[in-house]
Amino acid sequence: MKFNSILLMSFLITGSMATAQIKYPITKTVNVTDEYFGTSVSDPYRWLEDDRSEATAEWVKAQNEVTDAYLAKIPFRKKLKERLTTLYRYGRSSAPFKRNGKYYFFSNDGSQNQDVLYEQTSITAVPTVFLDPNKLSADGTVALCDISFSDDGKYYAYVIARSGSDWNEIYVADRATHRLLDDHIMWAKFTGVEWLGDGFFYSAYDAPAEGSELSSKNEYHKVYYHKIGTPQSHDRVEYQELNNPLLFHSLEVSNDNRFLFIYQSQGHGNSILVKDLKAADAKYRPIVASLDNECSVVATDDDYIYIFTSEGAPRNKLVAVPVGDLRPEATRTIIPEAEYVMSGIRRASDRFIATYEIHASDHSIVFDRTGKKLYDIALPGIGSVSFSCSPKHSEVFYSFTTFTNPGATYSLNLADGSSKLYRQDELKFNPLDFVTEQVTYKSKDGTDVRMFLIYKKGLKKNGKNPTLLYGYGGFNISLTPSYKARVMPFIEAGGIYAVANLRGGSEYGEQWHQAGTKMNKQNVFDDFIAAAEYLITEKYTSPKHLACNGGSNGGLLVGAVVNQRPDLFAAAVPQVGVMDMLRYHLFTIGWNWAGDYGRSDDSPEMFEYLYRYSPLHNIKNNGTRYPAILVTTGDHDDRVVPAHSFKYAATLQASNTGNRAKLIRIDSKAGHGSGKPISKQIDEYTDVFGFIMYELGMNPF
User: Fold this and answer.
1) What residues make up the domain containing 460?
2) Whether the predicted model's global pTM rises above the 0.70 cut
3) Of 36, 286, 520, 699, which has the fewest beta carbons less than 10 angstroms from its beta carbon?
4) End of a domain among 427, 452, 485?
5) Shared domain check, 476 and 423
């Protein structure tokens, strides 16, 4: 197969916009048709699902050549990369955590691809490097996913991922000498490491067939126990479910080493099984039987197992289950459901720290063991908080971040509730130069939706401000304030960064989530469209100055909204998006998303609903003018396989959607995004924001 990848750089100047006439690679079509309840659906680019074939590799190479040539013509690209490099290279550290009497924290001096783990003998002692993931690969594409220490302090196990894949490997080392043991676990996935005795538990799948590692359907997730000094082939299956291949399984050891908890999940919600190791007939018994609610064990003591749950409480609550009586009727509520969503809860010594989302911003409260409120924690503004604490001691640290402050770590005096700044991340700009505003707008059905707007002081609402609208809207995930270095050059150049808190997330509890799932999914798109209309109506921006962006489920959002309202945007960047809603469940763990999406084989009604909004299947081919589009994906993305983006981009390029660019950027040795080295992030967002700023007519430098 031969591709023509010549880029004809003939620019037609329209106002301040430059529109390139691009000759895209010729993508062959195949005669493939599927039948869904009597409806025939063609899939002419099915061959691109084979992302390991030579033909697909040639297609990827040709597409990247076209995209690279287009992006290379952006006049400010070099200066944008320089500014992004400066912004990414800031000193930063995580909150410390305590293990076996020592303190650990992750830190990056700003020049490292991966954060480094440091050890301290006391909280004021000079830190020393404990584990440097940058030494695990020359290019920084091996990421540290988890680390866990044995109870006796003799060993530690660490979990890595290569090139952005979800597949994990586990290594074990001597804690004193850092000498690697022969123990090496392969084909682990969605796992941590939980130590007990002379070994640890982990979760894994059977080894996939050669050549299908990044695309084949993952089934029969198992929990194993590995004894130190033995080969993986001798590992014992601690738990499996042979009657349901589509369940995730993970194991947690209680803080007192008395209980083993098995979490089972499939889509949204999970059950919990418990084994009391002190019981004469130790076996797993259900403590939460249903998969319909989200729940997790917070802590245990001699009397109770404390569980954070949404059962009977869409905004979540804390309950206590008596150790000697696991019956549902014996459970009692410790902290009841409140007006706002309890997004998380931690145990610190004998107290609970609960965090609530109030209009997508975190607020934290300390309760005693009985559920009595003691005090509010005075957090330093509108932002997001993360606590580091344990039932085993009273030391508490927390990290706090905002849209314009990368982060600070505070120590909390658990006795009186006072906080003290422990460490501030380095700043490469003055946060006081920027404004964070929260607005409320009406969606199509009258629902109130909130949105954050971040911009430089002195903004004029004249309808001419370059604006980037970002959204997600799914899987019970909230978009609370967080610092993103990649966005700052856009804001510094006069842009508005808008983050919409769409239905499908968890900002207002399970009802808000369900209002954006399955046959309610159109609500998410309507919320996003209404956000764009609000920004235009209120004179923040106008369609020729407005771009949209989202990743994964947010990539689906961007693809669907651009099909429905292409007139609202000048540019769109769907990243690692779910674009084929009819076949998503056939790859890797795609089946796990059915709780939010439904499946094309569920019923005629579900098929029709998915078919009406699926980004791949609703691209207009009638001359409708689309915005400029840059699709991004990674060749090792085994979460949302790159075939979604490949087929979507090929369809865009073959359709009559106007003469704005329709490009795809395929990163090498990159996955869904987690663990991506800083150098690759800088390269990616130089291209993403260079494209957005260029298409919006900005001249930032």
Assistant:
1) 10-86+429-695
2) yes
3) 699
4) 427
5) no
